[in-house]
Write a structure and sequence with these properties.
Endonuclease, Chain A; eight-stranded mixed β-sheet; 19 helices; 27 strands; PP_kinase_middle; EC 2.7.4.1
Length: 724
């Protein structure tokens, strides 16, 4: 599902959800307390609660609040499909389940269920008691059949007959018709009918079509928008689907299935074919959650639980409508007064031509010095996309090499690679076909690229290639110049408008040689032992980060300037966290800016009183990763693709690049200053794991919105007069 939301696509939860393929590797020597880690799953649910709190916030534009409700629902779906499914899979198969809180897996699963029940019920109440009444007041009505007068019902009857009835498929359940397969995340109606002749009661299942709008529009009345949920409209025409039968009961239900994909790469010669087979099996994963409308009768519930092999704990009884992810549709309404103000990204000052009439020359701009990009404040289209498009069209460009983890439909990035290949350039695309929930799309892109003559490779066996790299080799006189891009986010023009990310464009030959060696390692058999300006996982990144943390610890103990500032999506890895605890104990000030999961406990006396943790959610999804080490007054700053998770450090190819320009180092430091400032709106993590929102000062005035302030800063930049 593609939306304009910073959270509302299939990548969000997948980006945040770790798997269970590695044991924790803490640095504990027995001196650190055993309860020093927060539970990962509960921390993820706390992240989704922060999303829900945005939906509860009346200061957010109304349609954005509805969007956050949809985001919460979509996130939770993926959490169950991946994280809960992975935990259950390991429990059911008898595999060890490492937990960083030292508790039995079944107890962890019970805690997840209790918290998820609480949050889903709160989610439903927010829609019913807050957002829906506000939508009504804004002349956007989500009606029920009982709200309609006779004229509306007649019109809806015509809509049902002409547009809905022909695509419905009622499925009976009886000795001749076994219980049907219920597809994951589909919305369904359970129907019990009685034959008036035989008095026999039968059960049927009716799937709500996914290829029709979730909300059916009613005729406008004096400019008031009115809709009725598709399932409600269908439910009130069941007599036409079961003619001659008496309708006794009908209820909504929805099943979530295990959709995690497990590929044994070392047991197959063809990864592409193995993945395609596994994607087919994904559709038939075991049920792990059953959502039902709160009016469902016990007889129907018992049948569903029996057929789906669902336990009481896995049943979620909620008020209709189920699946509030359908609220994404409201984001398409032309009501700018109920949305965030429209913003147009600026072109990076460093990429603007000296004269407005001049044509931008990306290569000349990069040659003048490293360029640090900050999306979405600075345009992806006029920077990264333009860089690759110019490379594809430039006759002096000899080769382009790029990683693709997630991209968008009709991607101009992919088209640029195809254009380059068709123009006779050597083009290498490393397509990660195992990117969760984007596997099928990436397989399609891989084949399209291959047909165009692009050299497509799929990375290293056993590792996902998650780094965001592009390398352009250009003939300039008698020399070859390397132009490089290293980013924190995907090469996806659509998400670049709502994902906050950093990227570095550079002509530094050191970086160019590093990327050349890394691409050779990924596409061939090279074993690279050392990089100059990159930190690369899985071989060196963990070791390098721990070494940097230990250096800051030593500096603090020696009385020298020290400090650690880390911005990531998730902070889970126990070894890194233990290193930060030891740094804190030595007196190192540690700032952690995390969007999602955080297993670190800040502010614990004797352990982490020098550590602060903040989370910022809002219009844009904070997605960049920054690692800032004070280094005795000579700051070392890295940006890149890696989070502090087992998978990123041990089972993925990740790359961080060191920033060399003092202005870029200062810019990242200023970002941290703003994020950690008490006057900036943020959630603060408490030692007990609670996230407390700080969004008003003592006088009740709103605190500074970091994203608004950052937009103001970037949009006010001007190219110096006479600069080229």
């Amino acid at each position: 599902m593609e939306t304009n939301s910073p959270f509302g696509d299939a990548t969000l939860a997948a980006d945040l959800l770790d798997d269970y393929d590695a044991d924790p590797a803490p640095l504990d020597d027995g001196t650190l307390p055993p309860d020093r880690f927060l539970d990962r799953e509960i921390s993820w649910l706390a992240f989704n609660q922060r999303v829900l709190e945005l939906a509860e916030d009346p200061r957010q534009p109304l349609l954005e609040r509805a969007n956050f409700l949809a985001i919460f629902a979509s996130n939770l779906d993926e959490f169950f499909m991946v994280r809960v499914a992975g935990l259950k899979r390991r429990i059911d198969t008898g595999l060890a389940v490492p937990t960083n809180v030292g508790r039995a897996p079944l107890d962890v699963l019970a805690d997840i269920s209790d918290r998820a029940h609480e949050l889903q019920e709160r989610h439903a109440r927010v829609f019913r008691d807050q957002v829906k009444p506000a939508l009504d007041a804004a002349d956007i009505h989500i009606e029920t059949w009982n709200d309609l007068d006779e004229a509306d019902r007649d019109r809806m009857h015509d809509v049902f007959q002409n547009q809905i009835f022909p695509v419905l498929m009622p499925l009976a359940v009886d000795p001749a018709h076994p219980f049907p397969y219920i597809s994951g995340l589909s919305l369904n109606l359970s129907v019990r009918v009685r034959n008036p002749k035989t008095e026999k009661v039968e059960f049927a299942r009716l799937k709500v079509p996914t290829n029709l709008p979730r909300f059916v529009q009613l005729p406008d009345v004096r400019g008031i928008l009115r809709y009725i949920p598709l399932e409600d409209l269908i439910a009130n025409h069941l007599g036409e689907l079961f003619p001659g039968m008496e309708i006794l009961e009908h209820h909504e239900f929805r099943v979530t299935r295990n959709e995690d994909v497990v590929i044994e790469e070392d047991e197959t010669e063809n990864l592409l074919q193995a993945l395609e087979k596994e994607l087919l099996r994904r559709r038939f994963g075991s049920p792990i959650r059953l959502e039902i409308s709160d009016d469902m009768d016990e007889l129907t519930l018992e049948l569903l639980m029996q057929e789906l092999r669902i336990t009481d704990r896995e049943v979620y009884r909620l008020p209709a409508p189920l699946d509030l992810g359908g609220l994404f549709e409201l984001n398409r309404l032309d009501r700018p007064d109920l949305k965030y103000p429209r913003r147009v990204p600026t072109t990076s000052v460093a990429l603007q031509p000296a004269e407005p009439t001049e044509r931008p020359d990306i290569f000349a701009s990069i040659s003048a010095g490293d360029i640090l990009l900050h999306h979405p404040y600075e345009s992806f289209a006029t920077s990264v996309q333009a860089f690759l498009e110019q490379a594809a069209a430039d006759p002096n460009v000899l080769a382009i090499k790029q990683t693709l983890y997630r991209t968008s439909g009709d991607s101009p990035i992919v088209e640029a690679l195809i254009d380059a290949a068709e123009a006779g350039k050597a083009v290498l695309a490393l397509v990660e076909i195992k990117a969760r929930f984007d596997e099928q799309a990436n397989i399609s892109w891989a084949r399209k690229l291959e047909r165009a003559g692009v050299h497509v490779v799929y990375g290293l066996v056993g590792l996902k290639t998650h780094c965001k790299l592009a390398l352009v080799v250009r003939q300039e006189g008698r020399t070859l110049t390397h132009y490089s891009h290293i980013g924190t986010g995907n090469y996806n023009p659509k998400t670049s408008r709502v994902y906050e990310d950093l990227g570095l464009l550079t002509a530094d030959p050191v970086v160019g040689k590093d990327l050349t060696r890394l691409f050779n390692e990924l596409s061939g058999y090279a074993i690279e032992k050392k990089f100059k300006r990159l930190l690369v996982a899985p071989r060196y990144l963990r070791r390098s980060l721990l070494k940097q943390i230990e250096a800051e610890t030593a500096n603090a103990l020696a009385g020298r300037p020290s400090g650690i500032r880390i911005k990531v999506n998730s902070m889970v890895d126990e070894a890194i966290i233990d290193g930060l605890y030891r740094a804190s104990q030595a007196g190192v000030p540690v700032d952690v800016w995390v969007r999602g999961i955080c297993s670190l406990r800040p502010g614990v006396p004797g352990l982490s009183e020098n550590i602060r943790v903040r989370s910022i959610l809002g219009r844009y999804l904070e997605h960049s990763r920054i690692f800032h080490f004070e280094n005795d007054g000579d700051p070392q700053v890295y940006i890149g693709s890696a989070d502090i998770m087992h998978r990123n450090l041990d089972r993925r190819v990740e790359a961080l690049v060191r920033l060399d320009n003092p202005a870029h180092i200062a810019e990242t430091s200023e970002l941290f200053d703003l994020a950690m400032d008490p006057g900036t709106s943020a959630w603060h993590l408490e030692p007990d794991g609670d996230w407390v929102r700080h969004d008003r000062d003592a006088a009740g005035e709103p605190l500074v919105d970091l994203q608004d302030e950052r937009w103001r800063q970037v949009s006010s930049r001007r190219r110096p007069v006479g600069a080229r």
